# Entry
Amino acid sequence: MQLKCRECGANLREGNPGPLCSPCQEKRLKSVADTDRRYYTVEELQYILDLESEESVKRLGRKGIIPGRMPGIKKHLYLKESVDAWIKAGNNVVRKPTSPIQAEAYALCIRGDHTWMRDVRFKDQAYQEEHTSEISDRQSIVMSYIRTCYFCGHIEVVPFF
Ligand SMILES: [Zn+2]
Ligand SMILES: [Zn+2]
# Structure
């Protein structure tokens, strides 16, 4: 089934982030533009993308689909620069490296190699980390790290020893 933009009826590609096409997202982007701030809040992104809930925004942010999530901050905030570029490019931009350590990771990322995500040197530099815990079959608690590649949103689950 072909999905259509809720606002203008344009065809949406598979995996479109939300019910709006990117030109319609861009219109909303302009209506929340505040030149003094460097980031968007979850509430603003929920409106821009016309998503159902704040949780939907966070989910896309964790998956790295919405780019620019500010690392090391519990509250979800997204760099305006990255979000604007992503929407203008039809929700297609991957983040580009801005430091030598990011460049090192990016060179591997674009080749599909994410083994570097097991190296803590890249934490908050080229990947973001969250923890999860699950109860295993043997009723013990299994903790793991969920790491998200900064550039492409690739997720690596690393067990916690
Ligand atoms: Zn539209
Ligand atoms: Zn990557």
